[in-house]
Amino acid sequence: MLNPDQARDRAADIVARATRSGADAADAVFAADASLDVSVRLGALEDIGRSESAELGLRVFVGNRTASVSTSDLSNDALDALVDRAVAMAREAPEDRWAGLAPRERLMHGAPPLLDLDDGGVIAPAELRDAALAAEEAARGVAGVTNSEGGGASASRMVWGLATSHGFAGAYAATGYGLSASVIAGTGDTGMERDYAHHSARRRDHLEDPAAIGRRAGERAVARLHPGRATSGTMPVVFDPRVGASLLGHLTGAIGGQSITRKTSFLLDSLGTRVFGEGVVIRDDPHRPHGLRSRPFDGEGLPVSPTEIVENGMLETWLLDSASARQLGLEPTGHAARGIGGGPGVSTSNLYLAAGPSPVATLIGDIDDGVFVTEVIGQGVNLVTGDYSRGAAGFRIEQGRLTTPIAEFTIAGNLKDMFLNLTPASDLEFRYGTNVPTCRVDGMTVASG
């Protein structure tokens, strides 16, 4: 695989070709990755897969007209043809007065931050197989587990380069490792339930022990056996961190530049106002060492830095790329995200809801009747109105403690009210790209199926 310097040079080369061929401005992305995946089931190797890819995406501007093209054919003749096609497409495209590269004066210069994203490791398929087998064996060893959907282990490395015609060229590499197990508890006579556990890390030596992952998967599946029904009514809903992270996804979807410029967000008039309860803090940290979504610069070549999205419950910023910032008369926020095809969108990096002061036991201790949600089902979220309704499974909360498993119920509310009534516990862990502690939301509607 190419190193970061080579990835940067590949992107810079096609940008230079584009400007020589008549583009007024251009930017390009080069991405290459290699991955190895191993799956096992019932103690035996089931599959080994290896994939490698290298792709290049080019965006060109002719005045305020733009076009984007991409290719996996990196030969000189193919790249020349790609450039010619992109410039010809741009000349025929409709004008977009907001289109353009990021502000030149805002581009990142100098040495990038040291993020420790690439451990340079090489791992053999046999090592991945052994890790997957260990995770599945631990899961199957939990009393009550009766079958397995398998264990999996993966390793990957990617390089990503970006270059623009107005002065930016940069690249970085990142490794990634994953481990998972998924098992079934119970029998056909008494009912079966499945659950899983997984962990991902940038560095192999940060990956959780396979046996711990497996035991967690098995214990979760067994805990779900013989589910009952939830009671219906208005009550507190407590979100397990695995599913609570989706609430932050709804927030970022509502404050992204495209939602604001199109006026399709339930938070359209909320900048600088209280949207969460007092004390709630939500941060985005692209500089987190070996973070799963850390990056040294954004998808337009702008520097990135830790951002307080919500401070003491107040919404402090939109998430803006250059195009949406120009349309709103604001500055880009360093949240541009770029794929191989098309122009930039926006995305957070290592997003998290800061821990609150109370442990989980205290958070639920005064709930006489409520639900603890470990799984949400369906896509019943409207980011224009904020209306929220999803199927769920989890456990009843009775007299301040978790009791019986429950399934086939619905939780509903409006995200504006849910955010204002959200209380975080103190159990924040950084395990995923988006991380939250256990969260309690008062006043939701629960309906039993």
UniProtKB/TrEMBL annotation:
<dbReference type="InterPro" id="IPR036059">
    <property type="entry name" value="TldD/PmbA_sf"/>
</dbReference>
<feature type="domain" description="Metalloprotease TldD/E N-terminal">
    <location>
        <begin position="26"/>
        <end position="90"/>
    </location>
</feature>
<comment type="similarity">
    <text>Belongs to the peptidase U62 family.</text>
</comment>
<dbReference type="InterPro" id="IPR045569">
    <property type="entry name" value="Metalloprtase-TldD/E_C"/>
</dbReference>
<dbReference type="GO" id="GO:0005829">
    <property type="term" value="C:cytosol"/>
</dbReference>
<dbReference type="InterPro" id="IPR047657">
    <property type="entry name" value="PmbA"/>
</dbReference>
<dbReference type="InterPro" id="IPR045570">
    <property type="entry name" value="Metalloprtase-TldD/E_cen_dom"/>
</dbReference>
<dbReference type="Pfam" id="PF01523">
    <property type="entry name" value="PmbA_TldD_1st"/>
</dbReference>
<protein>
    <submittedName>
        <fullName>TldD/PmbA family protein</fullName>
    </submittedName>
</protein>
<feature type="domain" description="Metalloprotease TldD/E central">
    <location>
        <begin position="125"/>
        <end position="225"/>
    </location>
</feature>
<dbReference type="InterPro" id="IPR002510">
    <property type="entry name" value="Metalloprtase-TldD/E_N"/>
</dbReference>
<feature type="domain" description="Metalloprotease TldD/E C-terminal">
    <location>
        <begin position="232"/>
        <end position="447"/>
    </location>
</feature>
<dbReference type="GO" id="GO:0008237">
    <property type="term" value="F:metallopeptidase activity"/>
</dbReference>
<dbReference type="Pfam" id="PF19289">
    <property type="entry name" value="PmbA_TldD_3rd"/>
</dbReference>
<dbReference type="InterPro" id="IPR035068">
    <property type="entry name" value="TldD/PmbA_N"/>
</dbReference>
<dbReference type="GO" id="GO:0006508">
    <property type="term" value="P:proteolysis"/>
</dbReference>
<dbReference type="Pfam" id="PF19290">
    <property type="entry name" value="PmbA_TldD_2nd"/>
</dbReference>
<dbReference type="InterPro" id="IPR018247">
    <property type="entry name" value="EF_Hand_1_Ca_BS"/>
</dbReference>
